[in-house]
Amino acid sequence: MRRRRAVRGSRRPLARQFLVWQLVVVVILLAAVAALAAVQSHSAFEETQGRRMLSVAEDVAATPGIRAGLVERNVDLLASFARSAENLSGADRVVVVDAGRVVRSSPDPAELGTAFEVGESTAFAGRAWTGEQGRSVVAEVPVVVEGGEVVGVVSAGIRAPTLFEALAPARGEVAALLGLALVLGVGGSLLLARRVRRQTLGLEPAEIVELVQRREAMLLGVKEGVVGLDGGKVTLINPAAHALLGLRVGDALDGLDARLRDVLTGAVRGEDQVVVHGGRVLVLNRNELDAGAVVTLRDRTELAALQDRLDASRSLTDTLRAQAHEFTNRLHTIAGLTELGEHDEVRRFVSGVVAAAEGWRREVVDRVAEPAVAALLVAKASLAQERGVELRFAAGAHLDASGDPALGGDLVTVLGNLVDNALDAVSGRGPDGWVEIDIAEREGAVHVRVRDSGPGVASDLAEEVFRHGFTTKAAESPGGRGLGLALVREVCLRRSGSVAVSGSTFTAVLA
Hints:
It is a single chain. Helix 2 runs antiparallel to helix 6 and helix 10 (301-339) packs antiparallel against helix 11 (343-367). This protein is of the alpha+beta class. It has 15 helices and 15 strands. Residues 1-10 and 471-481 have low confidence and may be disordered.
């Protein structure tokens, strides 16, 4: 906590940040405007003063005294005319150069007698020239005598003002503009900061960043899947949910299974919605928000597998208990007959019991050559007998050994769940209850049909009974898992098959 307070103390408030950046922007804009004004002012100065200096240079070059002074090399005469031209025209300097490019008259005594820098000038070629030399605008005009001979050059120049010198006359306007920009910047910064703070619930930018980072850390650390939705699109998803659903931010939900899509979009509501997706058993909960919805996912595949194993153990225990109960009754009967001395009746009773047990086993062995399926049906016979339900084969039921252990395991899952549901549906409905099994291989696929004498499934639930994952015993056991028929559907779809129900008849196809 101390570290957090220290970090917050070093952060700048949002209003101050806006103010600083607004001032920076204002300064940059003012600098850009000043630079643009300076460029335009210099361009206008160069054009205007260039023409003016050209006029001054032409007037001086056309003076007879300048021509006479250059011809006679009379330096005093040249200086007199040059200084007079400077005073009258306002030029900063008027320089007279002879034909040998030596300075004969200049306001700077140090330049007298020195070589004149011609540069780009065309004056010595007989053509007037205007341009820039350093920070001065200069015009150079040739001095021509009769016969067209160039006897010298007159150069008139004026220094261009600096940016501060150019802005000096408008200091009041510049100060007023700067003050107005400052006031607008400060006021705008405060209003903008206030508006942003209202929209961000009073959080500073650094606090928002910290909040987002914490949210990302929490999402990455949560083992359960979390999906944020806005309409039919994913706006947030953590790695756990991505691994379970294969979705990414921005993906639509159109390509998902109908049951999963209904739960994610809220078409199906309720807590702990069970969905089988990609061979995994998922439990989903959806929470509505103003900006969309958040769905949490829990993977219950391992728990469901453990419960399946417990169910298998319980089924085996029930079968053994039923067999033990049945054997105990038979032993009691045999013992009673023995005490009564009915030895012939004992022999007939034992023969009948053996014949009945061997009859079902023999029928199972004759009809079903798949070992795992045959063992399942033999075990289910004792459970059916204890419940007073007749377990029988359809007339054409027959299945050869496939040699595929995976197919045998899938058939045990499908047939076991369907038979258990049928026994639960028939139990307690009188002595005439029956469950009929039809299993056969046709056209490269195994067809399984289980029907019973129970009331069957309502037609409006023919699809929902598989999609929602509840079993036919859901009404009697509202707290049940409701995964049996969902697992049957998952196995059939995984093997490119199908499962359907019509009344009390369940039909499954495994390719």
